[in-house]
Write a structure and sequence with these properties.
4 strands; four-stranded parallel β-sheet; alpha/beta; 2 domains
Length: about 230
């Protein structure tokens, strides 16, 4: 967990390719699968991976610029579970330390990150991390791209993440919009025994109806069947 964040995000699309290679090399699975038409699903930072495999390009420097401009409003995006703003007297110190660390690690890392995996034929990104993306690269995704939105996402504020993707990608399909859902609402079952800070970001908001999750899964399944079936 020492490199949580952009350092690991860079490697994830390649790891998807390696996973496909492993399945192709396994005699138990290779005869059963069409590995020239693979679907990829990811949520949160995994959603960034799915978007990258659909053609998005991104950079750590873009994340740094976002945090410079919107640190207070989108604090969990910038610091993850490291700390949180509470309205207390230490908040200014937290913001200052966070910005210094983000600048040091990411401000100069401008190299565009992308990955082409021709075997990916459809992608779904749920509540994706999106602020590092050059949104122009999502204007025409290279594969059919579905999206899942959670309107009460407290970790990746929709206005800068999923809503920005939707604005850039007119051809994307909104498979599910859960206006009362939180960042972790798409998970089923939800993780248990979370530390308090993680629970505040991942647990369902009060009043969320989890029948919406089953409906979202059904829509995702239909999307993949439609775009991957022979």
């Amino acid at each position: 967990m020492s490199n949580v964040g952009p350092d690991t995000w860079k490697h994830r699309p390649k790891e998807v390719s390696q996973a496909i290679d492993a399945m192709a090399a396994d005699p138990r699975f290779a005869p059963l699968l069409d590995l020239q038409r693979v679907g990829v699903y990811g949520m949160s930072a995994g959603g960034l991976t799915a978007l990258t495999l659909a053609g998005a390009r991104w950079s750590p420097a873009a994340l740094s610029r976002h945090c410079e401009a919107h640190l207070s409003e989108d604090f969990p995006t910038c610091v993850g579970l490291t700390t949180e703003l509470t309205g207390g007297m230490l908040d200014p110190l937290k913001r200052n330390v966070a910005l210094r660390a983000i600048r040091f690690k990411f401000a100069d890392d401008t190299a565009a990150q992308g990955w082409h995996e021709p075997r990916i034929a459809a992608a779904v990104a749920a509540v994706p991390m999106a602020v590092p993306i050059d949104m122009a690269t999502l204007a025409r995704p290279r594969v059919p791209l579905g999206l899942v939105r959670a309107g009460q996402d407290a970790w990746l504020a929709p206005r800068w993440h999923i809503d920005a993707v939707r604005a850039a990608c007119k051809g994307c399909v909104l498979l599910a919009d859960m206006p009362d859902g939180g960042h972790g609402s798409i998970l089923s079952p939800q993780p248990s025994d979370l530390p308090p800070r993680a629970a505040r970001l991942l647990n369902d908001p009060p009043g969320f109806d989890r029948t919406a999750v089953a409906q979202a899964y059904a829509a995702i399944t239909r999307f993949f069947v439609q775009n991957l079936a022979p």
